[in-house]
Amino acid sequence: MTIKILGISAYYHDSASALLIDGMVVAAAQEERFTRKKHCADFPENAIKYCIEHARVTLSDIDYIVFYDKPLIKFERLLETYLSYAPKGLRSFLSAMPVWLKEKLFLKSTLKKELASLYGLKIKELPPLMFAEHHQSHAASAFFPSPYSNAAVLCLDGVGEWATTTAWMGKGNSLIPQWEIDFPHSLGLLYSAFTYYTGFKVNSGEYKLMGLAPYGEPKYVDLIRANLVDVKEDGTFRLDMHYFNYATGLTMTNKYFNRLFGSKPRKPESELTQREMDIACSIQVVTEDIVLKLAKTLKQELNVDYLCLAGGVALNCVANGKLLRKKIFKDIWIQPAAGDAGGAIGAAYSIWHEYLGKERTLSNLPDQADYTMGSYLGPSYENREITEYLNTIGVKYEKLDDKELLPKIADILTDEKVVGWFQGRMEFGPRALGARSIIGDPRSITMQSTMNLKIKHRESFRPFAPAVKFEAVSDWFEIDRKSPYMLFVAAVKENKHISIPDGQEKLFGIEKLNVPRSKIPAITHVDYSARVQTVHKETNPRFYALLGEFEKRTNCPVLINTSFNVRGEPIVCTPEDAYRCFMRTEMDYLVMENILLSKTEQSGWKKDDSWKNEFELD
Q1: Model's pTM, two decimal places?
Q2: Is the peptide bond before 184 cis (omega within 30 degrees of 0)?
Q3: Tell me, what's the pLDDT at 615?
């Protein structure tokens, strides 16, 4: 009998749903893509509907529904934390209590009501509702879809119920807990504290802090180690909570943190100075040091060849790249949706393998592939659906088959035009992987600033990622294996570097940005690094074919690949989302399946700055 398991994550941030059928993930999506609210934490009704409809089943056909977290244990942590710090945390406690008493404390009944209402069922008609622990969901999302029969599993995030760091032994169809570090001692919250202090938004600005780090020097590393975090040789750590406010207050840091670094937090949107760059660099170094030490400890304790990672810290692709280069493990697999969204997949896998005891079968996986299908798990749209929408709004377009379309797009890209690329199933997780992407020519010396300022509407310092044909990755980057999920940073090959003019190698901070460093300057960060995505014929044949057409014209099998959205907006989901984003930016062309739109032919477009009023600037 076929067994269907629906996983849900919700109510904290990055709500999502995932559906497993006989142990295979067939659909997964984040709620933000449907509501258009970035990091949406609502009950994921749209994501659930999508998963159910994609599988052509009904909610009554589902055998188990599982939530990724245990709210009663989380409530216990909230109460114990307040009692430990009382009366200091009264304001924070009072602000949290109404939400907990109204919604989260009685989450089981809340979920049942939402699900029953969604499908017009009585509560007694619902499938069984179960709960996994937060880090159990993370660990399951990392190990069970991986290509390894045995592996060490490391989960690092802000906080689950109590745990902030957990180690596991993944063996066959089981996860054996090893040890954990508990709240308030958290590597994720330490990094978020610096995100907050440097003026970025917690839970979304961590990428910015990581991107800013190469512009700085690690001047504050000793200060951080001496005052904020005590790191042992085995990688375990404790924070000095004297400097932090997140356990009891409404901010991440406090006046003592300010005194330590000599000023109040940077105001959002104010000018970035060398000081913020140096602070970003310093906390990145400390983070990498902790991750490497923890990995070495796991290798010594478990003596296995492979490592799996999940949790929000696992999205720190710079640390991941360094961990890969150290060769502590033979290889590493990271859950593409490593944050809370991926907990929906993990919770479902936990029911399948751990609760039901179903075996894992790896023999049918080709060449170290995995069970996430390239993370292309979201909705797709046919040409007919796209043209029906475009016809209703009177848009000019042309329809071309792939033999004509792909060469034409390659020619457009070589002319330094920017293309919105919308095809196939939407990606699950925070990265665009060639299904909902904005693409461009990496050889252009102006493309990074053009795409940042005129299309993405974001800070000019932020780097772009290269998508490269897998067979050619080692010719262009210092990496010798797959990186399909854009989760490893690697150096651009030295033979692709170009000499820097006299005097410019001594530039500081943001001045470094406009100095070309390689033959693919638009994706080469100031430290010669790049966040590499390998593209595979098996999982995304169309994007792979486009890279081939571009290579024919340029001898370069690399394209810029950035997410199809603007600042403050989730990645686009539907043709309507894509067209709206296209028209509000200075993108030159839009491809939706076999439909091609040129900006110059669109009567409703004009260059202006109206986007500044359209989107929340985070």
Answers
A1: 0.93
A2: yes
A3: 36
